[in-house]
Structures are given as structure tokens and as C-alpha cells.
Amino acid sequence: MAKIIVVTSGKGGVGKTTTSGSLATGLAMAGHKTVVIDFDVGLRNLDLIMGCERRVVYDIVNVIHGDANVNQALIRDKKIPNLFILAASQTRDKDALEKEAVKKLLDELSETFDYIVCDSPAGIEKGALMAMYYADVAIVVANPEVSSVRDSDRILGILGSKTQKAEMGEPLEEYLVVTRYAKKRANNGEMMTVESVQELLGIPLLGIIPESPSVLNASNSGEPVILDQKSDAGRAYQAIVNKFLGGSETPKKQGFFKRLLRGKQEVVA
Amino acid sequence: MNILNVMTYFRRNKSAQIAKNRLHIIIAQEKSEKGSPDYLPMLRQEILKVVAKYTNADMGQVNVELHCKDNNAILELNVTLPDSRLVTA
Q1: Most Cβ neighbours (<10 Å): which of A136, A209, A263, B19?
Q2: A146 vs B23: CB contact, 8 Å cut-off?
Q3: What pLDDT digit, counting tens, does each position of A86-101 carry?
Q4: What residues of B are in contact with residue A149 (Cβ under 8 Å)?
Q5: Are A51 and A79 contacting, i.e. CB atoms less than 8 angstroms apart?
Q6: How far apart are CA A84 and CA A44, in angstroms?
Q7: Per-residue model confidence (pLDDT) at position B85
Q8: Are A189 and B19 inside 8 Å of each other by CB?
């Protein structure tokens, strides 16, 4: 059974897709078979962040409508073994997603994957509701800024009422990721501190991503920023993955390359 | 001059605290309004109008809240009236 993680925020542009891409990449690098799904039907972007935009043939709506099977639509990551991407449709709208069809898709993926990361669209419309409905874990991404925090609080309310777990009275794991954090400005009192944001939202903190030029560099070149281990943001995402996996396991650079090599050998063999 | 500089320094750097306070209030308000009837904002608006018609109370000092407990809903109206002696004086 796969663990289903939704990355959500309410507000747009706070770093949901960046976080989804790096989290999924990190989980796959740690040896877990992971698929990351773009639920932003009509405005897909995960493919660009993952650098696979020219390899999209079928998308989530094709799979849901039965035009293609899941395996045809899954895009295998070029660098990381165990990592797969399912793109959103660019031509449909969000109403193309239905609860039953999404359940069928997630059930099928659950059989072969360890983690399913759902990249939610912004807003609280159908696309966002579908992305979160079957989640076991919710990662709420927020910037230390008033509109983002308010929207995150709203999303937490929706997570607590409109997910399958909520409807069944089961607890949903919720974690906070604060992105675009400028420690200096927070120390000066110009920006809310992580502690303030966490106190306002009242969920455990999974990690802090500093405001960093490496995020734009990474998206420019279509590589999840977690692969840039020289950058502060890349290391911060690695720390989030480690914490999520419940260990204080420090990232081993060698391990990553070894795994890369191992993956290639498997392909050759 | 020096004191003024220090003052503006502190004032400039207080915005994070302002953000936090504003969010505290709005998030608490939105939580309390969750599941409350749609007419509440309009009801609040009209009650404020009536209060303003008869008194010169500061509208910022008027609080309208709906509390739900068990099967009872309590509409609480809290108006701080200005001291009449001060007004006439």
C-alpha cells in the first residue's frame, strides 16, 4: 500500500510544485518507488519543474477517460530510478477529475508504488479537492506572509472536513513547510518568523526552505532543486525528506551516485 | 534627531509583529464564523447601523458574535458606549 501525500497551500505561487518535485525526487533517491502526480489540470507545470515536458504523451485525464493505461502515461525520470511523473492535462479543465476515477487511479498506483505525491493546484476548487481527498499525509506549504498564512489556515480547515480521512473520522497527518524564508529579515522584524507562522497554523513543522536563487536556477534548467546539494534550498529539501522518513539520517552524497549507478546497471542487466 | 532615528528604526521593523497580530484576529474570526449562517455579516452590518443611529459609539467598539452551544445559539452584542458626561461637557 502506498502512502498518499498531498502538497497543498491554498494560495498560488508559494512553492507547491517545487516542493512536490523535490520531495518526490528525495523519496525516490532514498530508495522508495515514488510517483508524483500533477493535479493542476489546465495549468500543468510539474513536467517543466521535473524537466520532462517534451516526453509527455498521455496525461492524467487520458488515464481517467481510459484513452491510455497508467503505465503508458507514467514518465520515468531520466536520472533517478524509482521516480515517475504523471502529468496533468493541458487542454481540459479541472472538472475532468471525478472522485471515483481518481480513486481507481490511486488504487492502481498503490499496488506498485511506496509513495504517491499529489501536487495540488492553488485554490479550493475541484482540482484541489480531488488532490487532497484520498491523502494520508498533507504537506501545507506557506510563505511567511499574511495572505499565504491565511489561505493555509483555510486549507487546513478544508483538510479537516473534506478529505476521506476526515469523513471517516480518522486523523490526517499534517505538516508545515515554510518556503521563501529570509532569516535576516525575520530577525530584523520585517518578516514573520517560522515560529509565528507555525503558532498561527498550529501544525508540526517539517522544514524551512530559505529564499534562494537556486530555486529559479533549478526550475530554469528543469531539475528539482533537491539535486543541487550545493545550494541551501537543495539541502533544506533533503533535510525535509530525511525528517519525513523519520530518521536523522544525513544525506550521503556517495549513496546517491551509487544508487544512480545501481539503477543504470539494472537497466543494462 | 537621534531619538527620531531610533523611533523610525523600530517603527520600520515592526511590520512582522503587525502581520502576526492581524492574522491572529482574522484567523480566530474565520474559525468562529465557520458553519455560522450566511446572514450573519448582514445582520451585523444592520445592527451596527441601528446602534450608530441612536448612539455615537465608536463602531470599532461594537462586537457582534454568534456562539453555538449544544442546541442553543446565542447572539452576543457588545457595545461600549461613550461616557455621556464627557459627551455633554
Answers
A1: A209
A2: yes
A3: 999 988 777 788 999 9
A4: 23, 27
A5: no
A6: 16
A7: 55
A8: no
Q: Range with the lowest mean pLDDT among A126-130, A155-159, B73-77?
A: B73-77
Which amino acid type is present at position A34?
Answer: T
Report CB contact under 8 Å: A189, B22.
no
As beta bridge partners, residue B65 has B76
What CA–CA distance (Å, rounded) separates A17 from A121? 9
Helix-then-strand count for chain B, H and E? 4, 2
Predicted ipTM of the assembly: 0.75
What three-state secondary structure class fits A7?
strand
Which string of b and e fits A139-148 if b means at least 16 CB within 10 Å? bbbbbbbbeb
Mutate which of B8, B11, B20, B30 to test chain A, going by most A C-beta atoms within 10 A?
B20
pLDDT of residue B4: 55
pLDDT tens track for A205-261: 999 999 999 999 999 999 999 999 999 999 999 999 999 998 544 444 445 555 555
Residue recorded with cell 530554469:
A220
